[in-house]
Each structure stands twice: as C-alpha cells, then as structure tokens.
Amino acid sequence: MGSFSCSNGVLDSSELDCNPLDAEEFRKQAHVVVDFIADYYREVEKYPVRSQMEPNYLRNKLPETAPERPESLETILEDVKKYIIPGLTHWQSLNFFAYFPATGSTAGFLGEMLCTAFNVVGFSWIASPAVTELESVVTDWLGKLLSLPESFLFSGTGGGVIHGSASEAMLCALVTARNMALEELKPPNMKKLVVHSSDQTHAAFGKAAMIAGISPKNLRVIPTSVASDFALSPVPFEAALVADMAAGLTPFFLCATVGTTSSGAVDPLEGLGLVPNKYNACVHVDAA
C-alpha cells in the first residue's frame, strides 16, 4: 500500500527500499479512496445510467504503452473521474432497472477490503486453515437455508465450493458430471456425450459445454413457449433424451434454471428431476 515520491516524473531513489505495505501510508491513502467512493455514491444518480461514450473512446484517452513513471494517487483518481466514470453503466444507481439487482453495500465493500488485505491463498488447509474451514461452514449455511438434505453438506457426505460466478459453478458441475459419465461409458467416448438445456438457459452453459469438450452438435436446446411461461417442460425434455439414447448417444447432463435471464422463467425442478433419474443423468440448477 506504499508509494514512491515522484517529482516531475523522477523517482526519489531514497525511497527504493520503501515497504510496499507501509501501514501508515495505507491508512492515509485509503482515507482518500474511501472519500472518493463515498462522493461517487452520494452523486451517482446525477450520471446517466448508461454510458454516453462511443466505442473505443478510452483507447484515445490513454497512452499507447504503460507509463514508466509512477503517478500520485490524486492524479490516478482524477483520471478515474475524467475517463472511467463517464464510461460506466452505473449498476448501483437507483435509476438502473435492468439485468440484475444492485448488490453493492457498505458491508460488501468492507468485506472485500478485508479479504483483499489478507491476500491469502486457500488451495489447501495448511495454506490458510481459516479460509478452508470458513468456506465449508458458509457452504453448509447456504445448504441449510435451501433445506438441502444432509448428503449435500460437509457435515454429511457432500460439500461445495464458493465460486466467483455462476458460470464457474456451471462449468465445475458439468466437468464433474462428464467425468462420471466417462467412467460409466465403456469404452469412454467424448463424442457420445450429450447435454440438454432450454432456449432460455443462459449462454454461459453453451460456453461451459465447449470448454468441457462437448461437441456443439451434442448440445440440445429444447424450445419453450408462452404456454409454459417459457419454462422447460419434462415431456419434450424426455422425448429429446430418449431420441438421443436411441441414436446411440449418452445424455448425461441437464441444466435447469430458476429465474432465467431472458424471461424470468422457472423450470419445474421436481418434474424435470425425475427424468434424468430414470436414465442415470445429472441435473444442475442455475439459480443465480
């Protein structure tokens, strides 16, 4: 959090041994940033919700190569005010009514600050025991809030991981199901694996399938209609699944959705869930 003094673009060599995490320097500069953020939120509704900038506006404002000399925090924040804020869609503005609900909060900002400040890595228990254990506790909290059975919890035979996005969670579930399917398929054959979704499923599912190695021609997108409120009905889903099996393919994964991005549709999970159970396939629920 430290900084180097810079006069006329010349670095003060006496500060080359500066502690980059100097506590007092962090305290001073953090106050400046917090004031900047607070001022932004106090005035956020004065900005047009949608940016009025033209494509590539920012490239014309910034240097072609990275600066070789440091700048003061004040200069950086002034650049943010002049060049970045005008190019934002102000998601947290009370005037913004599209896509997803605003999720900004004082608690959220301060939590992110704490998390970033500790800057630890949680890839194993010994790397940071508190990180691993807190994740398992919070994951169980969520499972209990959703009334999931004990088999889904760390306290049972399950567990989970806190992902950075719904797209990451979707990919993780898909790869897990793919590996299970390949273990059952003798001999293993990726070309036989088929996944199903509706035409309201988020586009991230198609991308996840591609990353997981599923052929685009094996991605089944089942049409929905206003008659079902754009939810995926079990009958056409089962018909598609049976047709794939008759063709010698292996349907192994259904991505259902609770609240689609495009229409807010809620797939009938109970009815849909019965279908894959009959054919040894997995179900993932995108409920983000």
Automatic annotation (TrEMBL):
Any one GO molecular-function label of the UniProt entry: carboxy-lyase activity
Matches recorded under PANTHER family: GROUP II PYRIDOXAL-5-PHOSPHATE DECARBOXYLASE, TYROSINE DECARBOXYLASE
Family: Belongs to the group II decarboxylase family.
UniProt GO BP: amino acid metabolic process; carboxylic acid metabolic process
Recorded superkingdom: Eukaryota
SUPFAM superfamilies named in the record: PLP-dependent transferases (SSF53383)
Keywords (A to Z) from UniProt: Decarboxylase, Lyase, Pyridoxal phosphate
InterPro entries attached to this UniProt entry: Aromatic_deC (IPR010977), PyrdxlP-dep_de-COase (IPR002129), PyrdxlP-dep_Trfase (IPR015424), PyrdxlP-dep_Trfase_major (IPR015421)
Protein name: Tyrosine decarboxylase
Cofactor list: pyridoxal 5'-phosphate
Keyword Phosphoprotein in annotation: no
UniProt source species: Amborella trichopoda
Any GO CC annotation of this UniProt entry: cytoplasm
Pfam families reported for this sequence: Pyridoxal_deC
